[in-house]
Amino acid sequence: MLLIRCPYCEEEHPELEFRHAGEAHIARPTEIADLSDDEFEKFFFIRQNPKGLIFERWRHIHGCGRFFNAARDTVTDKFHLTYKAGEPKPDITLMAPSAPAAWANREPAELNVDMPANDTGVK
Ligand SMILES: [Zn+2]
Q1: Looking at the domain 3-110, which fold is it?
Q2: Which residues fall inside 5 Å of ion ligand 1, going by CB?
Q3: Which of 32, 38, 66, 119 has a CA positioned 20 to 30 A from the CA of residue 1?
Q4: Strand 79-84 relative to strand 67-73: parallel, antiparallel, unpaired?
Q5: pLDDT bucket at 117, cuts 50 / 70 / 90
Q6: How much is the pTM?
Q7: d(Cα 47, Cα 114) in Å, to the nearest integer?
């Protein structure tokens, strides 16, 4: 069974306790009514959906109920790390496939941060 570490409970729990909540680090527009139809489409529907390492929102629905972010590999389904909502996006280069298993529980504060200027880290 796949185990996911909740950064709030600070424990690993079975995946059945969690719910996927979409791509992480989406910058929400402050004045959504001012967007053109094309801009709104891009914000609302268009996601990266890459093969490999991605950043996602998850919710510990049958636990503390809180949202958090995770770096997960879509090929191996391995969770490289989880971190609290609102914390900056970790440096993706530190999570290469050859990275040691110790990355799984590493705290984001220890990582180099490379966050785009418009990334608000919305929870
Ligand atoms: Zn939790």
Answers
A1: Folate-binding fold (3.30.2270)
A2: 6, 8-9, 60, 63-64
A3: 66
A4: antiparallel
A5: very low
A6: 0.71
A7: 20
